[in-house]
Amino acid sequence: MRILVVGSGGREHALCWKLASSPLCEALYCAPGNAGIAEEATCVPVAASDLDGIVDLARKERIDFVVVGPEDPLCLGLVDRLETAGIPAFGPSKAAAELEGSKGFMKDLARRAGIPTAAYERFTDAEAARAYIRKQGAPIVIKADGLTAGKGVVVAAIVEEALAAVDEIMGRRRFGAAGAEVVVEEFLDGEEASLFALCDGKTALLLGVAQDHKRAFDGDKGANTGGMGAYAPAPILDDTMARRAMRDFVDPTLKAMAEAGRPFKGILFVGLMVGKEGPKLLEYNVRFGDPECQVLMMRLRSDLLPALIAAREGELDQVDLRWHAEPAITVVMAARGYPEAPEKGSEIRNLGAAGKEPGVVVFHAGTRAEGGRILANGGRVLGVSAVGRDLKEARERAYRAVDLIDWPEGFCRRDIAARALGR
């Protein structure tokens, strides 16, 4: 088969790395890709959000199957466009992708389906949102309704911080049209976990549970980011709790989406807060997480490609995936200034030595090649990933590789998986 992966981040590098090992894969392309992906696939400079360009590329290269990585093209309807053109694609339709494209839509669906989630209200009027915040008090959570690359959520400790968030999102339109509406919801205390399910519209297959680290700096300090590291499996959700989460969150969501005429096919990423009352839904994403995808791909023994095809064709009930027992960890290296204003263009050296460490794979996220050099070209730049006999060994391997990389302009958190190791 001739495969095209759409996207350019660490998630897409991990997908390309895994798909390239499939005996079914004859040729692998990525649009637009990055410097690391270029070692696995033929990279073509077509933007992920250029729907016409992606369809034209798939036709030109006689692509048999397209795997769409990021949320933006999914929410724009890339899968619909490809399928209309007769090109099989993995991912949800535009209508189904609204589970991530609109937080208000997701919350309303959860309410109708009886899925446990935080109490909330939706607002298109800033003054009404402010009045509700003053009435509810703090701590409280403010979310831009649309896509914001993981940066549109403010967990406000005091009322003034919450009011300022409404001004920033709705008044100054920091996130553009994505902030035309906000969701204001109760603060949930507990520990976050991410569950991933492969869905074919009616059947869901558990892919695993991971734990992400959203804040920029050690000790969960600093601004929210797209994710500074992850590990899997996550002990906060053991096998019993994961099966319960599939029953309480994934299954009713598939049922509700089918009843709404929006059957969900693709990856359902369930963001959970695990507190004293048990897990509650924080958010849905409609694609693999980044950096969670990296740890999942490191642990997957089975061929990924047949499973993705089965999800698209409604045949997941015939799929059985096998996993390595060893845990995996990813430590994200980001450019100085991330997430607000990352500095681009600095050179990254000694990647080869880091990648030769036992059990280590260095996934590229925001890189480009120039004159034989690898340069930083984004906020989150590398995902240094490792497996080990246990989480302690995996973590030691990952940080040993991090320390081999010569990149003074980069930084990372030094406490990825510390919470799990401290249990």
Count of helices?
14
Q: What is the domain tally?
A: 4
Sheet with the most strands? Answer: 9 strands, antiparallel
Q: Could you name the ranges where pLDDT drops below 50 across 5 or more consecutive residues?
A: none
Quick one: overall form? globular
- Cα-atom radius of gyration: 20 Å
CATH superfamily of the largest domain: ATP-grasp fold, B domain
Classify the fold: give the CATH topology of the largest domain: D-amino Acid Aminotransferase, Chain A, domain 1
Number of strands: 23
Helix content: 25-40%
CATH architecture descriptor text of the largest domain: 2-Layer Sandwich
CATH class of the largest domain equals Alpha Beta
Beginning-to-end CA distance, first to last residue: 45 Å
Mean pLDDT, to the nearest integer, reads 96
Which characteristics define this entry?
nine-stranded antiparallel beta sheet, Rossmann fold, 23 strands, 4 domains, Dna Ligase, domain 1, 32% helix, 423 residues, D-amino Acid Aminotransferase, Chain A, domain 1
Structure description:
The protein is globular and about 55 Å long. The protein folds into 4 domains: 2-91, 3-Layer(aba) Sandwich (Rossmann fold), CATH 3.40.50; 125-180, Dna Ligase, domain 1 (2-Layer Sandwich), CATH 3.30.1490.20; 191-318, D-amino Acid Aminotransferase, Chain A, domain 1, CATH 3.30.470; 328-421, Phosphoribosylglycinamide synthetase, C-terminal domain (Glycinamide Ribonucleotide Synthetase, Chain A, domain 4), CATH 3.90.600. It is built from 14 helices and 23 strands. The strands form 5 sheets. Strands 10, 11, 14, 15, 16, 17, 19, 22 and 23 form a 9-stranded antiparallel sheet that branches. A 5-stranded parallel sheet has the order 3-2-1-4-5, with helices on both faces. It starts with a strand and ends with a helix. By secondary structure, it is of the alpha+beta class.
